[in-house]
């Protein structure tokens, strides 16, 4: 896992949608939150989107209700509650991670923003995340030997 949050290993984190129909449990480690300012995230959520992530085999549902999945781009889909519309999940084909919106967790104090992608393509209406948040698209970031783009949003 790229950029796990220290102290989340072996812990369980519950969450769910706005109406409560979908409940889940994600086992740690959890990944830092990455913000995405791409055109898909802007169009689907109305603004930038952020997500932590957990391994798929550490994630399970606590209720019978399941998200409805929407193929939002080639190679990726987003999960939302069909009852209340809460967009909670993002997953890329062939990856062992599921990205989870920070607001979907019941308790979010353990989360923090670790980076952002597509910052420079964000519309002028802003606001965009502060410049002190690591910009994962910059050549400077890539030159430090880290990935240019995270595995999951």
Secondary structure elements and pairings:
Blueprint: E1 12-16, E2 23-27, E3 33-36, H1 39-45, E4 49-55, E5 59-61, E6 68-73, E7 76-80, E8 87-92, E9 97-100, E10 113-117, H2 139-143
Parallel strand pairs: 3-10
Antiparallel strand pairs: 1-2, 2-5, 3-4, 4-9, 6-7, 7-8, 8-9
Could you give a short description of this structure?
The chain has 153 residues and is mainly β.
Would you mind describing this structure in some detail?
- This protein is mainly beta.
- It has one domain: Metal Binding Protein, Guanine Nucleotide Exchange Factor, Chain A.
- Helices cover 8% and strands 33% of the residues.
- The protein contains two helices and ten strands.
- A seven-stranded mixed β-sheet has the order 6-7-8-9-4-3-10.
- A hairpin with a 2-residue loop joins strand 6 and strand 7.
- The two termini are 13 Å apart.
- The model is unreliable at 142-149 (pLDDT under 50).
Q: Please bin the fraction of helical residues.
A: under 10%
The assigned structural class equals mainly beta
Instruction: List unreliable stretches of 5+ residues.
Output: 142-149
What count of helical segments does DSSP give? Answer: 2
- The strand count comes to 10
Gap between N and C termini, in Å?
A: 13 Å
Strand residue percentage: 25-35%
């Amino acid at each position: 896992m790229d950029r796990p949050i220290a102290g989340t290993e072996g812990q369980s984190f519950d969450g769910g949608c706005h109406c409560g129909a979908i409940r889940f449990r994600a086992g740690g480690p959890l990944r830092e939150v990455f913000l995405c300012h791409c055109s898909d995230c802007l169009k689907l959520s109305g603004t930038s989107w952020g997500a932590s992530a957990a391994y798929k085999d550490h994630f399970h549902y606590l209720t019978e209700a399941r998200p409805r999945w929407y193929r939002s781009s080639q190679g990726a889909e987003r999960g939302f509650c069909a009852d209340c519309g809460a967009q909670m999940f993002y997953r890329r084909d062939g990856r062992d991670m599921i990205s989870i919106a920070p607001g979907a967790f019941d308790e979010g104090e353990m989360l923090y923003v670790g980076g952002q992608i597509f910052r420079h393509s964000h519309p002028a209406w802003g606001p965009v995340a502060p410049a002190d948040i690591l910009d994962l698209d910059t050549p400077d970031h890539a030159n430090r030997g880290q990935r240019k783009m995270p595995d999951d949003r």
